Each structure stands twice: as structure tokens, then as C-alpha cells.
Amino acid sequence: MDHVIVEHAPPAVAEYLSLREIAGMSPRSREGAERGLPNSLFAVCLRQDDVLIGMGRVVGDDGCFYQVVDIVVHPDEQGKGYGKLIMNEIMKYLKENVPARALVSLLADVPADRLYAQFGFEYTSPQSEGMWWRQEG
């Protein structure tokens, strides 16, 4: 981790889309990324020799609701603690900026749910179940 630079800024659109694809995450449109990335409440990027190797973001209304999204580490760099580094940066932001009684949520893919549990995230079921609606296309 000595050669990794931590930036608190969203990635460029092209590298964002590329890292998601390389890591096997669901694709996002260029239009969506162009609109969404600048609206991040907080973003963290990990760079190695100016190459994006990991990222994470917080989005929401900046008062009542926050969502942790886009936590991803390049497959060649997984297992080296970079996911924890990203989450540590996000948790610092959340603890310093989220008002009392606000809700912070995330959708956890398995086995990443084990990482998020280390930071205090809990399953909502059986009281509630996560649901989603996605625009097709």
C-alpha cells in the first residue's frame, strides 16, 4: 500500500466505467456517469502510478439519507486491504458529516457483505428487505 495515493474526488467518467467493467460490476451508461459522478457527496479513489485501482462513493440528499455505492477494487489488487482502506475513508466522512438519525444504506454483494459488517453495517431483514427498480436500456 506504500505506492497508493488516496484522492477525495470522483474518478473520470471513462476510468469509472472501465473499472466497474473490469471488476465485473453491472454496467452504467456514460450519460449516467457524466451526470452522477459530479453529484457525489463524497468520493475516494485509490491510484497506483496514476491508474485507478479502487474507488467508493457516498450519494444522497446530504441530510436524511445517504447511500454507499461503487465500492470496487481492481481484480489484480484485491485481497491487499484496499477495500478496507476505501471503507475507512468513507466511514471517516460519514462520522464527520452525517447528522444524527440519518440513514446510511448500501447494497452488499456477497462476499463483500463481510467487509461492510466490519464497519457496523447490519442486515435490515426481517424488518425490511432491500428492493430496487432499474431503468432498462
Overview in brief:
The chain has 137 residues and is of the alpha+beta class.
Give a verbal description of the structure.
Pfam families: Acetyltransf_1. InterPro entries: Acetyltransferase_Butenolide, Acyl_CoA_acyltransferase, GNAT_dom. GO terms for molecular function: acyltransferase activity, transferring groups other than amino-acyl groups. With 137 residues, the chain is of the alpha+beta class. The protein has a single domain, classed as Aminopeptidase, CATH 3.40.630. 28% of the residues lie in helices and 25% in strands. It is built from four helices and five strands, in the order βααβββαβα. It has helices at 13-22, 30-36, 82-97, 113-117, and strands at residues 4-7, 42-48, 51-60, 65-73, 103-106. The protein has a five-stranded mixed beta sheet. α3 (82-97) links the parallel β4 and β5. The longest helix has 16 residues, at 82-97.
List the keywords.
single chain; 137 residues; alpha+beta; Aminopeptidase; 5-stranded mixed sheet; 5 strands; globular
Order of helices and strands: EHHEEEHEH
Widest β-sheet, arrangement of strands: 1-2-3-4-5
How many individual β-strands? 5
Q: In the CATH classification, which architecture applies?
A: 3-Layer(aba) Sandwich
